[in-house]
Design brief:
123 residues; mainly beta; 7-stranded mixed sheet; 4-stranded antiparallel sheet
């Protein structure tokens, strides 16, 4: 069993930054990949970024490339999402997810999910 707990959401002005963190517990994580997804009201849950724990391979959706950075913290056993140059269209509930194997980009590929953390970008 894997437990994921997100933190770090909040309200930020356009152009600002936030750092989300996903604390992981419950299993040896060497062969897992971690993803961040987001879901805005009335929209489908969409892929944001992912990282493979064993080799640090990363993937991003086009709309966040150059603005968001996913990273893993082996000391804290956590995966962070640094979000810079935030835009109102980044407003959503952000979810952390985990899957065994290489990174995936669609929600059904992930088995474990956190509860989500709200990110609101507004002036």
């Amino acid at each position: 069993q894997v437990q994921l707990v997100e933190s770090g959401g909040g309200l930020v002005q356009p152009g600002g930054s936030l750092r989300l963190s996903c604390a992981v517990s419950g299993r040896t994580f060497s062969y897992y990949s971690m993803g961040w997804f987001r879901q805005a009201p009335g929209k489908e849950r969409e892929f944001v970024a992912a990282i493979r724990w064993m080799n640090d391979y990363t993937a991003y959706t086009d709309s966040v490339k150059g603005r968001f950075t996913i990273s893993r913290d082996t000391a804290k056993i956590a995966v962070d999402l640094q979000m810079n140059s935030l835009k109102p269209e980044d407003t959503a509930v952000y979810y952390c997810a985990a899957r065994f194997g290489p990174v995936g980009t669609i929600p059904p590929e992930y088995y474990y999910w956190g509860q989500g953390t709200q990110v609101t970008v507004s002036s």
